[in-house]
Amino acid sequence: xxxxxxxxxxxxxxxxxxxxxxxxxxxxxxxxxxxxxxxxxxxxxxxxxxxxxxxxxxxxxxxxxxxxxxxxxxxxxxxxxxxxxxxxxxxxxxxxxxxxxxxxxxxxxxxxxxxxxxxxxxxxxxxxxxxxxxxxxxxxxxxxxxxxxxxxxxxxxxxxxxxxxxxxxxxxxxxxxxxxxxxxxxxxxxxxxxxxxxxxxxxxxxxxxxxxx
Amino acid sequence: xxxxxxxxxxxxxxxxxxxxxxxxxxxxxxxxxxxxxxxxxxxxxxxxxxxxxxxxxxxxxxxxxxxxxxxxxxxxxxxxxxxxxxxxxxxxxxxxxxxxxxxxxxxxxxxxxxxxxxxxxxxxxxxxxxxxxxxxxxxxxxxxxxxxxxxxxxxxxxxxxxxxxxxxxxxxxxxxxxxxxxxxxxxxxxxxxxxxxxxxxxxxxxxxxxxxxxxxxxxxxxxxxxxxxxxxxxxxxxxxxxxxxxxxxxxxxxxxxxxxxxxxxxxxxxxxxx
Lengths: 213, 274
Description:
The structure holds 2 protein chains of 2 kinds. By secondary structure, chain A is of the alpha/beta class. Chain A has a single domain, classed as Rossmann fold. Helix content of chain A is 25%, strand content 33%. Chain A is built from 6 helices and 13 strands. Chain B has one domain: Alpha-Beta Barrel (TIM Barrel). Helices cover 33% and strands 21% of the residues of chain B. Chain B has helices spanning 45-54, 69-85, 99-108, 117-121, 124-133, 169-179, 200-207, 226-231, 241-244, 250-259, and strands at 18-26, 29-30, 60-64, 90-93, 112-115, 138-146, 154-158, 163-168, 183-188, 214-217, 236-239. The relative contact order of chain B is 0.13. At the A-B interface, helix 1, strand 8, strand 9, strand 11 and helix 6 of A face helix 2 and helix 3 of B.
């Protein structure tokens, strides 16, 4: 175990409260910074892709800073990327909002669609059911809760991705069961906000830092 | 998905009822005296926020009741310092008049911003904020009172409940959601301060009109008051002095809700990060 603190860039493409993600990563030992600089985003040990709001707006913002290419280049070199909330959703092929379809980064097959539930957004704390082998949830009990805030989600597990093995998928239910977490080699993502999920979220981020080399 | 092969079971999951302490902040200081012996400075909203986080609060709400715009600047600093230390969702309301105010609060570290009087005066503000930042961070705060002047029997008030707006509170909640409000913070002016319980009829009426998360506020005075608010349709329960004065704890409210059969976020087994 090296004593060097892993470097992490939180990608700044005009989306939401990035400060909390930066601070939460620093709290668990990362040398984290918010940046829109592609060189910094490529060079860091880990890249966090945040995101709130609409899929189409996030995708446009991501493209505007070349974030989609940074993600592709990092993954081509097996360098870790963590998507959070809409930053997870844009990793899929397609987003559907009000009948309009938007291309995502396309790392995983699947459509991001509106949840069918009596109350939306799905806002609050919920559990995640996942295969025992997930690295992000290592050491976290099944009743630990994470903070969600979203109206859209992916309803089917991505069967293939960037790694040779099939991605691991974690699930949560709101109206229907949806994809709450994906682990696919260097590419990991959560529909919930670990940076807003108190100690459970901190433990998850610490687990992610462990995967950085 | 089969539950046997997994850590936990998604099919049995349900979003937890949130328990939210609310801090009234004036010029950067918590008002309504707070009586916690373990705090160095009970008037410091940042220290109090951290304490509530440790006590299991699922979310925090700051209401800025500052009168002068000069003092309002201090609120941004309070939000910034809170977001540095507290890793649960933070809603900030009070005196938010324009999209630029929403932007500043989000950048300072707020996750959601509550709009009240300004949205009544200019409902388009809700749509502007939702279009720019997403509905998930736009909270409509309603101060409602019973009134014979409206169809539902509930009227919107402004200026902290002092002025009737002549608007039906139930219709307003429906309209505001259509314009982009992603959550409703529903405060009963009549029940507020009475400690006699939430206004359950008000909660049920707004629940029936608005399909977004609903936070019930106003009137909590005892542990037994919380489960009926959830039964009436609230997704979250908010209280101020009840928690500040230590009458009941966050944990006790959660136990009460769990005993009534509602999902709550249990205390995490994860060791606290430094």
